């Protein structure tokens, strides 16, 4: 069995909170209101995963599935510069795809599995920003919730299988019930993440992000079975997620 790798978030405090970084063979989920740094964290991980293992990276390429159209190569350039890495080289190691519906999103995961078997060990990270957006638009009707959850479950199982088979970390972002950007939702509890039991069970580590003062943000471990519900403060900077 291969050793688990830990990829730095860019913030030492945040890394500490989750046991050293986001882990391979595991699914890490970050949810929170808009502007809490979910996309900035995704961007930062695209860079940090390429760093040497001794420096908190996984010495690997990364695959990113964008469902919200918020990927910005220029942000990656700035983050690469912070870590003294060549921006264009960093961008060359990011396999990027946009998904427009949940069928495409599912197909992309299958395509990634095929890619990973062609290039064993080259990829240690898959990012999906966000996992839920297209589900909220594809299944916006009240009677479709069961169907939505079933498909979400299929997707999460497939992700976990890829994570274990190829020793890859899965990082997904999620929205809050109160965020209406993804279509109609019944607001049962606005402070809860979307995805119900399916995401709750599928995600190994769940992070609840909230706003602090200025560029400060706070991450809290959510519903962790084996870790205390501790918090970590991090900052969003030009160079990505930092302390
Ligand atoms: P939604 O996707 O809308 O739910 O939000 P999110 O959680 O993905 O937020 P995102 O990661 O996009 O964070 C946006 C925040 O990052 C905003 O407060 C921006 O001001 C901040 N931000 C983005 N780029 C920079 C930058 O270059 N420098 C600094 N200091 N802040 C930045
Ligand atoms: Mg975002």
UniProtKB/TrEMBL annotation:
GO terms for molecular function: ATP binding; ATP-dependent DNA damage sensor activity; DNA strand exchange activity; double-stranded DNA binding; single-stranded DNA binding. It is found in: Nucleus. One of its GO terms (cellular component) is condensed nuclear chromosome. Its main location: nucleus. Keywords: ATP-binding, Cell cycle, DNA-binding, Meiosis, Nucleotide-binding, Nucleus. GO terms for biological process: chromosome organization involved in meiotic cell cycle; DNA recombinase assembly; DNA strand invasion; meiotic joint molecule formation; mitotic recombination. Signal peptide: none annotated. Coiled coil: none annotated. Residues 3-176, 183-243 form the RecA family profile domain. Belongs to the RecA family. DMC1 subfamily. This is Meiotic recombination protein DMC1/LIM15-like protein. It comes from Rozella allomycis (strain CSF55). The chain holds residues 95 to 337 of 340 of the full protein.
